[in-house]
Design goal:
The complex is a heterodimer. By secondary structure, chain A is α/β, with parallel strands linked by helices. Helix content of chain A is about 35%, strand content about 15%. Chain A is globular. Chain B is globular and about 55 Å long. Chain B starts with a strand and ends with a helix. The chains are: A alpha/beta, B alpha/beta. The complex binds flavin-adenine dinucleotide (FAD) and FE2/S2 (inorganic) cluster.
Chain lengths: ~500, ~280
């Protein structure tokens, strides 16, 4: 049943009136009910692109903050890739000192309004949370991500955002390639030291996957644009429409254009396909293409946008990560009648955030688990008309400990579909490597770096998905930070 | 940046524009292209081959036919106007060396991307024969420019209004039958022309390079929207191409893929034509 935001707020108000001025024992704290995230009604939201999760009300945040036990050992901090002082910022919420709270977060994280929305908390901080352990259910942990988002949004709405202090100019220039979370973070940290920073971005809009991949209904573009604005106010120059490797080579930046150091944060932009028959039929898309058309090119605004998007009725999305969820949920919003996610393992193995899987189900997305495509079938016009699927069962655990899916013999069956979206991951875009011989990469094309994010080339650093393979926003941010620190030290 | 410094109408719906883009002018090589977008928020990104460039002046030249939404709008811009976004140069440059004798086949608007390649091949010391094909004499572009490069220039029109009344494949076949046959053919034009040019040269074993103009979004290898089947393998035109071995390209699949958004394109085209008609009526009244 869908519970409205007003109701959730009212409930929280009631609880708060009882516990607000009390000093609470741990037992009383764990007895406080977990605060659900207010969300748009699924029936309504499948017809719009607006953000699904609406964010805690002040009352809910105050209640949820009181579920935190303020453990001295703070296991949650260990689970955080950038070691935010989590009990610290939650304590400040409890004290209703939101300004202090956001300050605590910002000591470690540059992009809380984004990470609060898209981090896979259930496998990071919230996995380690003592409250979750008590209930033996990580879904009952303190909602750290929701609280983080709450204070970040509070800061934005109060227009409290300040521009970080910039040291006097050093006269040195640093190039940052790519404007995703890794690039944004590196640029900010390097600019703070007084170095001149130029960010080169291939697309016409900066923001990386946060702009072209993750949909509006999950991460409003305004939030990413605000981060970019802050960067510009810090005197960072952003050069859009500039593809390093083609518009200019990496070596030219160092040797001809006077940059003292370069940070590569170009992401994992090379879509994997399944390598099966029929994959080049009309109606088969990489999730990257489908999502870019909708998000960056705004094809969902069918009357204003010049970029078309394929009109679909029956859509099949292959994959089980956030990308697959985003593509499926986009397709349903664009008017598809039936959208299925096809995944060859079970739900437990799905790498997507739990919240996204839940939201997708609420929106009527079908899940076909333990199945995969063996062939895509086209009509006489070369358009997709059906997909041949095969069934899997879970076999012995593989090296990673996950039970390996094994194909069931003779299980081929044909299912009607007019659109296929492939969301089985991304590899590294080879462009910079191809045009920079000295740069060492591993067999997956990921740039090899040392513990300071330094590459095999002097003065050249790298971080984010181009080093880690397709990973997360928070890890990209963490690496941007690390590389910036090393670059600042070098200069 | 990206200001239009010269605009010329080459035929009914074919336009030439010189755009100030010093960076691209400096780096570009024959065979490469740009991606252009007229409006940052709602415009679409379309690939256009760089027909010429002047590094000293800092300009690139594009030649396009006003057929779709964006090219129609582009044709309405004038000297002094700015193009909001221009990315390039993209794609692999043409492989230029001294092959011996080369035949360059250009169909319709395809003569534009062919021109810098023919020029570079000539400069590399090749004997260059150019075949230009068009529906009628009014649709022939860059004839003068090609004349200054080509050792031999053959013009074909569908209706015989200029040169031979033939498809480009006819003179191409004759050249392949000669002794010695050409060492290389380069064919650029509508997909159907490239398909038949490649089929023509294949029995003679004349290596044939074609330049593909597929639907693109990013032009950096990120989306796979531009993919084609070449020799049974999937290739991305924007990063692996735009040039491929014409004998290996699956043109039928490529043509089907080009029609992915036909319905919307037809609607847009219709709208554009209505606009033009209204304009015409307003002018007349
Ligand atoms: C659909 C989708 C959903 C996701 N959902 C989540 C989620 O919920 N939570 C989460 O934590 N993570 C999520 N991720 C992953 C996350 O977005 C990435 O891990 C993160 O953005 C990587 O950051 P980055 O800075 O390394 O690269 P990117 O964000 O990929 O940015 C790289 C930028 O570099 C530019 N670029 C590339 N090559 C060049 C070049 N040669 N010259 C100039 N510019 C160049 C690109 O255009 C791009 O803008 C998702 C990814 C996708 C695709
Ligand atoms: S246009 Fe996107 S990969 Fe080529």
């Amino acid at each position: 049943m869908h519970i409205s935001a007003e109701e959730l707020k009212k409930n929280a108000q009631l609880i708060l009136s009882e516990i607000k001025d009390k000093s609470l024992s741990n037992k009383e704290r764990t007895a406080i009910p977990l605060q659900e995230m207010p969300a748009q009604d699924p029936k309504i939201r499948i017809n719009n692109m607006e953000e699904v999760a609406q964010g805690y009300s002040r009352e809910q945040a105050l209640v949820e903050s009181r579920r935190c036990l303020q453990c001295a050992s703070a296991p949650c901090v260990e689970g955080c890739p950038v070691q935010i002082n989590i009990p610290g910022f939650i304590k400040a919420i409890e004290e209703e000192n939101f300004e202090k709270s956001i300050g605590v977060i910002k000591e470690a994280s540059l992009l809380p309004s984004i990470c609060g929305r898209v981090c896979p908390q259930e496998s990071q901080c919230q996995e380690k949370c003592t409250v979750g352990k008590i209930f033996k259910d990580p879904n009952k942990s303190v909602s750290i991500g929701r609280l983080e988002r709450f204070v970040a949004d509070w800061e934005a709405s109060e227009a409290k955002r300040s521009i970080p202090e910039i040291k006097p100019s050093t006269g040195k220039k640093v190039a940052v390639i790519g404007s995703g979370p890794a690039g944004i973070t590196a640029a900010a940290d390097i600019a703070k030291e007084g170095h001149e920073v130029v960010v080169f971005e291939a697309f016409h809009k900066p923001g990386g996957v946060m702009i072209y991949g993750i949909p509006e209904f999950r991460l409003p573009k305004k939030i990413v644009e605000d981060e970019i604005e802050t960067l510009k106010k810090m005197n960072v120059t952003i050069k859009q429409n500039f593809l390093v490797g083609r518009s200019r080579t990496l070596k030219d930046l160092l040797e001809k254009d006077g940059f003292s150091a370069v940070f590569i944060g170009t992401g994992a932009g090379l879509p994997k396909f399944m390598g099966i028959e029929g994959e080049n039929l009309v109606g088969v898309f990489s999730a990257n293409e489908y999502l870019t058309r909708s998000n960056l090119m705004k094809a969902y605004k069918k009357d204003t946008a010049a970029t078309p998007i394929y009109p679909s009725k029956k859509v099949m999305v292959f994959g089980g990560g956030n990308v697959a969820m985003d593509a499926a949920r986009t397709a349903i919003r664009l008017g598809a009648e039936e959208v299925s996610i096809v995944y060859r393992r079970t739900e437990a193995e799905m790498p997507a955030r739990i919240e996204e899987v839940a939201h997708a189900k609420e929106e009527g997305i079908k899940f076909r688990l333990l199945e995969n495509a063996s062939k895509i079938i086209g009509d006489e016009k070369g358009r997709v008309k059906a997909v041949e699927l095969v069934t899997f069962e879970l076999g012995e655990p593989d090296a990673s400990g996950r039970r390996r899916p094994v194909q069931v013999k003779g299980s081929e069956h044909v299912v009607e579909a007019d659109t296929v979206i492939v969301a089985i991951g991304n590899e590294s875009n080879p462009l910079i490597k191809q045009t920079t011989q000295e740069l060492e990469v591993n067999k997956y094309g990921n740039i090899i770096v040392d513990e300071n994010c330094k590459t095999s080339m002097d003065r050249v650093y790298a971080g984010g998905d181009i080093v880690l393979g397709a990973a997360t926003v928070i890890l990209a941010m963490g690496e941007g930070r690390k590389a910036a620190a090393a670059i600042n030290k070098l200069l | 940046m990206n200001r239009i410094i010269l605009k010329k109408q080459l035929s009914d719906d074919v336009f030439m524009m010189k755009i100030a883009a010093p960076h691209i002018a400096e780096e570009r090589k024959p065979g490469q292209f740009v991606i252009l977008q007229l409006d940052t928020d709602f415009g679409e990104r379309i690939p256009l081959t760089i027909a010429d460039a002047d590094a000293e002046e800092g300009s690139v030249t594009i030649i396009y036919q006003a057929v779709g939404n964006t090219t129609h709008r582009l044709s309405k811009l004038n000297e002094g106007d700015r193009i909001q976004n221009l990315l390039g140069p993209l794609g692999q440059p043409t492989h230029i060396e001294k092959f011996g004798s080369v035949v360059c086949v250009g169909g319709g608007i395809g003569v534009a991307p062919l021109h810098p390649i023919a020029k570079a091949l000539k400069q590399a010391g090749n004997h260059v024969t150019v075949i230009i094909g068009a529906r009628n004499k009014d649709l022939i572009i860059l004839e003068e420019e090609m004349k200054t490069i080509a050792d031999e220039l053959i013009i074909c029109t569908d209706d015989g209004s200029k040169g031979r009344k033939d498809l480009v494949t006819a003179p191409l076949k004759e050249l392949c039958e000669k002794n010695p046959k050409p060492n290389l053919a380069v064919a650029i034009g509508p997909p159907i022309m490239m398909k038949f040019a490649a089929l023509t040269t294949k029995p003679y074993g004349v290596h044939t390079v074609v330049s593909l103009n597929t639907i693109m979004v990013d032009g950096t290898g990120m989306c796979g929207g531009c993919r084609v089947t070449v020799g049974g393998q999937t290739k991305f035109v924007c990063v692996d191409g735009p040039e491929f071995d014409g004998h290996l390209v699956d043109f039928d699949n490529m043509m089907l893929r080009l029609g992915s958004y036909k319905a919307k394109e037809e609607e847009d085209h219709h709208k554009c034509h209505l606009d033009l008609q209204i304009e015409q009526l307003q002018k007349n009244s």
